[in-house]
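ARCHIVE RECORD
Type: protein–small molecule complex
Small molecule: S-adenosylmethionine
Source of inputs: curated submission
Record status: active
Notes field left blank by submitter.
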Amino acid sequence: MNIEETIVAIDELKLNGFPHEHVKLVCETVIEFQPDIICEWGTNAGNSARMLYEAAQLIPCPLHSIENGQQGIPPLLEGCHINLHHGQGLDLTLALTAGSERPLILIDDHHVYQTTYDNLAILSEQRPQAVLFIHDSLASEATHALMNFLSSNGGYKVTDSTSESGLTRLWPV
Ligand SMILES: C[S@@+](CC[C@H](N)C(=O)[O-])C[C@H]1O[C@@H](n2cnc3c(N)ncnc32)[C@H](O)[C@@H]1O
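STRUCTURE (tokenized, with ligand):
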């Protein structure tokens, strides 16, 4: 499938929390950035993981999804070749992306202020080559953390999708 067909196919899945604008931004990023690995956390019902799985087929490239809570395969991910992990998202992502030249990382955890800020600070230091996505970036704590992080870190070009609860992309410059 090409990018247009992939976006239509993902839209037809009607994934919760991932409207067309988010799907388009992610698919365009995968094509433009050509990641050699995609990592995301947390898996939960698998909406973000399924979107990334379909988008990753465009290249293709391996996808890892990490959850520190409930275990098992969400129905949305049945039959998809996704590497599911149980553990802490940041720690496992750092381990999985060691040696990666072009990691793409999506964070969809609880979006509390300190964790969001710390994740950004650590990833920008340890994986400066990564493209980062923050889901629910319009949630007040996530917005606050992003603004504070970006005010002292000029290393990214920022693209915001303001549909629904927001998706922010940080592209290293
Ligand atoms: C908003 S839900 C994720 C929704 C999911 N991405 C989807 O699209 O269906 C947040 C999830 O992140 C998980 N989580 C929170 N902190 C985490 C961490 N440090 N590492 C891995 N998973 C985490 C929670 O257990 C919860 O299942």
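CURATOR ANNOTATION: The chain has one domain: 3-172.
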